[in-house]
Amino acid sequence: MILEEIMNRHSGRAFSSKPISDEMLNSILEAGRWAPSCSNKQAWNFIVLHDKEVLTEAHEALSGGNAYGKAAPVMIIVAAKEDGGCSAHGLPYFMMDVGLAVENMLLQAVHLGLMGHPVAGWNEAELKDTTGIPKEYRIVCVIFLGYEGDLSLLDEVDRAKASRPRTRRELSEIVHWEKW
């Protein structure tokens, strides 16, 4: 009863260099645009990198643990103002809004036969400088997008991570009915 895209989504590390069509990329961005957001503030901004020179420069700002993502033909930076979401209860709702948009994009990518891997780990100042993101925005997420590639091309550490089966805690560990 769970959507096939949810069950097939995984954060793989092996990307093919095969380009993604503009039509597919636009549908992924549309999926992000239609995500729910607190008070409909739509705090997200998507910076799409697919030019090889721009990608090469942006890759310099990634942490070493994200080196596998350099093979992906598309990198999307998701940025938002910290005060861009609604301000209810003093919580950072802009983060939830971005998370919802990212998940929509990841599921749309799976629907199209692509793989998306959201990551943390970058030099924010350097990445903002490379892409022109205004200083008042925070980079909340970076997503690598592409077709799944050959695992044998990954280094040993990334190959092991990419080969692990997906696991989740049991519902009985995380669901509380009526009371905790």
Give an overview of the whole structure.
- By secondary structure, this protein is α+β, with helices and mostly antiparallel strands.
- It has a single domain (20-150), classed as NADH Oxidase.
- It has helices spanning 4-8, 22-33, 52-59, 93-111, 124-131, 156-163, 171-174; strands at residues 45-49, 74-81, 115-119, 137-146.
- It has a 4-stranded antiparallel β-sheet, with helices on both faces.
- Helix 2 (22-33) packs antiparallel against helix 4.
- The radius of gyration is 17 Å and the shape is globular.
- The model has no long low-confidence stretch (mean pLDDT 95).
Backbone CA Rg:
17 Å
In whole angstroms, the N-to-C terminal distance is 26 Å
Main sheet strand line-up:
1-2-4-3
Task: Count every helix, treating DSSP H or I runs of 4 or more residues as helices.
Answer: 7
What is the share of helical residues? 25-40%
Tell me the structural class.
Answer: alpha+beta
What count of domains describes the coordinates? 1
- Major β-sheet, in short? 4 strands, antiparallel
Could you tell me the mean pLDDT? Answer: 95
CATH class: Alpha Beta
CATH superfamily: NADH Oxidase
User: Residue ranges: pLDDT <50 for 5 or more in a row?
Assistant: none
Question: What attributes characterize this protein structure?
Answer:
180 residues; alpha+beta; NADH Oxidase; four-stranded antiparallel sheet; 7 helices; 16% strand
How is this fold's topology laid out?
Layout: H1 4-8, H2 22-33, E1 45-49, H3 52-59, E2 74-81, H4 93-111, E3 115-119, H5 124-131, E4 137-146, H6 156-163, H7 171-174
Antiparallel strand pairs: 1-2, 2-4, 3-4
Helix pairs in contact: 2-4
